[in-house]
């Protein structure tokens, strides 16, 4: 019984260390060099009760700069006039949280490498008539 407990403890420790190291690796990739990630593709899909009702997007949609001190600057160039959002960021092994203007957006990391990343935010709600909506915002980003 002691050997089983020891083995389970070692496995648990290895899983925790592996998770932490992935989290730190993503953190380093986010702010390495100048921390600037170019948004090469920005897409939004809106679903009503599981069926897509609207879709849109843009190429070359701006950039996000992740600073080592935990702050970010998001320059959105989708519209004719760029908008700039600043705030703080944090990450786990699977998500990036952006906190700005008192609101938090959590983006799941769908794909990640040293120079490319795809993240997605899903906002879901049900309206007063019982219609279920999901808005999926996907950013494909790369370091230049």
Supply the number of structural domains. Answer: 1
Distance between the ends = 54 Å
Q: Which residues form runs of ≥5 with pLDDT under 50?
A: none
Remind me, CATH topology?
A: Lipocalin
| Bulk shape | globular
Strand content: over 45%
Q: Briefly note the structural class of the backbone.
A: alpha+beta
Helical proportion? 10-25%
CATH class category label: Mainly Beta
Number of helical segments? 1
Average residue-wise pLDDT:
89
CATH architecture: Beta Barrel
Sequence of secondary-structure elements? HEEEEEEEEE
Number of strands: 9
Largest sheet: 8 strands, antiparallel, barrel
Q: Work out the radius of gyration.
A: 19 Å
Describe this structure as you would to a colleague.
The protein is an alpha+beta fold and 144 residues long. It has one domain: Lipocalin, CATH 2.40.128. 21% of the residues lie in helices and 56% in strands. The chain is built from 1 helix and 9 strands, in the order αβββββββββ. It has an 8-stranded antiparallel β-barrel. A hairpin with a 2-residue loop joins β1 (36-48) and β2.
